[in-house]
Amino acid sequence: MAQKKHWRDKHDKVFAELESYKKAHPETPAPPAPPQKKKEADKDDELNHRIAVLELQRDNPDLKLTREAADMAIAFSKTRGTTPQEVISSTFFQTFLKEEDDKKKAAGGTPDPSHRAGQPAEDWEKYVRDPALIKTLSKEKYTELQAWIKANPDKVPKE
Predict the structure, then answer these.
(1) How far apart are CA 65 and CA 130, in angstroms?
(2) Please, how many CA atoms are within 13 Å of residue 142, restricted to the half-sphere of its CB?
(3) Which domain holds residue 48?
(4) Does residue 132 surpass a pLDDT of 70?
């Protein structure tokens, strides 16, 4: 019983202090709730972002921008305070795109052909038969042709 009386007295005392505090300090209005974004505004922002991505992809067809790369260009341009086109034309972003392209080619590509069997021998006789083809040879190939002619004089037609 003594405990009940003790806690009841304590409750009454704290409640009385609370009432006196409320009288001394009139209730301040609660701060207004922060304005919430409208869902329509979110949809508009998303739509504007998609349009910006599509415009970047359209304006730069030679780069073959992925959506992720265009998103990165837009985000980077916002942080730098520039246009996405300026970001895309920067050497930093060009290098990034090249590296991404190389990664995709390496991941999905086929390995280089093996040269263990060697390269097929050049058909030097066709150049000897048709001298007009000699003009199409590079300097290295022309040197190889001359070496072949010296090594195979019997295959060269006599005029």
Answers:
(1) 47
(2) 9
(3) 43-105
(4) yes
Whether 50 maps to a domain, the answer reads yes
Residue 143 domain flag: yes
In the chain, the amino acid numbered 6 is H
> Which residues, in sequence order, are CB contacts of 134 under 8 Å at separation 6+?
127, 142, 145
Specify whether the CB–CB gap between 71 and 46 falls below 8 A: no
Q: Which DSSP symbol is given to 81?
A: T
| Residue 105, pLDDT score | 79
Both 99 and 52 in a single domain? yes
Distance CA 105, CA 99 (A): 10
In a domain, 97, yes or no: yes
Same domain, 49 and 87: yes
Q: How many domains does the chain have?
A: 2
The length of the chain in residues reads: 159
Count Cβ atoms within 10 A of the Cβ of residue 108 and give its class: 0-12 exposed, 13-18 middle, 19 or more buried: exposed
User: Cα 37 to chain center, whole Å?
Assistant: 29
DSSP annotation of 66: -
| Residue 89, in any domain of the structure | yes
**Digit-coded pLDDT (tens) for 5-35:** 899 999 999 989 988 888 888 777 777 777 7
